[in-house]
């Protein structure tokens, strides 16, 4: 719990991961003793939406970053969650399953104020911030089993995962980790890492793993959408995922971006995204 001196995120999380320890970013988490001791009802489900008929479109899903961060869940997330334009466009909100213990009243608030266009997803990389590819093989199943328990209790069925080296480079999810997620967690899919330019799909252990394009501004999002559209033949569905920089963007910005897209795009929640992808 806490954070790393000097902000050495990737090296710190790598060290913890190599020793089978998850990180709870909590350097600016206020009143944790009180919040952890106050009970609140937690729902094991989220607002249901219908999965539309699969068509020859570009299916796009947006996920706000940094939800593993407990102090973010308390401060910045609440700020952008209160954006009056939230709910107009389907959005995924990464959040820490540890709120069940650390601050159940906070998780209850987000659950109770969700719109049908808001989907809560497990922040990197499940039950605690970690790089699962660095975990010792003998300990990994303990992490995925615990992740399954927390995600089930919080009604989460999509994971936003990170697999990063000490030097900050993104690595694809390994087959070993995908097997563990598939075996114990059974998510609809995994939104993995972030990159610039394009997103790509892996199918590992029967699990769809979609990389995300990172955007910090509306203009970056529009450029990304242009690149995605130019790569599309129009003869079949195309799937792409965007990771939205939660420290610099809010739902109003995503709405502005969404309104600038052509009719070939359809924006969907993460669960709908993976249901369509599995059908395809």
Word description of this protein:
This protein has 280 residues and is α/β, with parallel strands linked by helices. It has one domain: TIM Barrel (Alpha-Beta Barrel). 36% of the residues lie in helices and 18% in strands. It contains eleven helices and nine strands. Strands 1, 2, 3, 4, 5, 6, 7, 8 and 9 form a nine-stranded mixed sheet that branches. Helix 8 links the parallel strand 4 and strand 5. Helix 9 runs parallel beside helix 10. The mean pLDDT is 95.
Structural descriptors:
280 residues, alpha/beta, TIM Barrel, nine-stranded mixed beta sheet, 11 helices, 9 strands
Set down the secondary structure blueprint:
Layout: H1 9-18, H2 32-37, E1 58-64, H3 70-74, H4 76-81, E2 91-95, H5 99-102, H6 104-112, E3 118-122, H7 137-154, E4 158-161, H8 175-185, E5 189-195, E6 201-204, E7 207-215, H9 218-230, E8 238-244, H10 251-259, E9 265-267, H11 270-279
Parallel strand pairs: 1-2, 1-8, 1-9, 2-3, 4-5, 5-7, 7-8
Antiparallel strand pairs: 6-7
Question: What would the principal axes of the Cα set say about the shape?
Answer: globular
Provide the CATH topology. TIM Barrel
Query: Could you name the ranges where pLDDT drops below 50 across 5 or more consecutive residues?
Result: none
Number of helices: 11
Sketch the topology as an H/E string, one letter per element.
Answer: HHEHHEHHEHEHEEEHEHEH
Strand content is 15-25%
Distance between the termini: 41 Å
Residue-averaged pLDDT: 95
Largest sheet, in brief, is: 9 strands, mixed
Q: How many domains make up the coordinates?
A: 1
Instruction: Name the CATH homologous superfamily.
Output: GxGYxYP glycoside hydrolase, C-terminal domain
**Which second-level CATH architecture applies?**
Alpha-Beta Barrel
């Amino acid at each position: 719990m806490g954070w790393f001196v000097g902000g050495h995120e990737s090296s710190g999380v790598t060290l913890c991961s190599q020793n089978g320890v998850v990180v709870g970013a909590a350097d600016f988490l206020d009143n944790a003793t009180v919040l952890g001791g106050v009970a609140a009802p937690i729902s094991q489900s989220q607002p249901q939406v219908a999965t539309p008929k699969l068509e020859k479109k570009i299916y796009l899903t947006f996920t706000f970053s940094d939800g593993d961060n407990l102090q973010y869940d308390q401060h910045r997330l609440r700020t952008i969650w209160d954006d009056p334009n939230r709910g107009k466009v389907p959005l995924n909100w990464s959040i820490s399953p540890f709120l069940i213990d650390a601050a159940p009243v906070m998780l209850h608030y987000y659950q109770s104020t969700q719109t049908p266009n808001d989907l809560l997803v497990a922040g990197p990389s499940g039950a605690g911030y970690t790089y699962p590819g660095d975990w010792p093989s003998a300990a990994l199943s303990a992490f995925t089993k615990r992740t399954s328990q927390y995600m089930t209790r919080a009604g989460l069925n999509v994971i936003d995962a990170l697999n990063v080296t000490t030097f900050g480079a993104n690595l694809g999810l390994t087959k070993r980790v995908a097997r563990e997620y598939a075996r114990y967690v059974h998510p609809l899919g995994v939104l993995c890492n972030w990159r610039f330019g394009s997103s790509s799909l892996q199918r590992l252990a029967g699990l769809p793993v979609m990389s995300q394009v990172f955007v910090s501004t509306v203009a970056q999002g529009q450029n990304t959408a242009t690149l995605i559209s130019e790569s599309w033949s129009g003869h079949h569905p195309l799937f792409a995922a965007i990771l939205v920089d939660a420290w610099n963007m809010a739902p109003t910005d995503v709405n502005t971006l969404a309104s600038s897209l052509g009719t070939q795009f359809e924006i969907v929640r993460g669960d709908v995204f993976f249901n369509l992808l599995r059908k395809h």
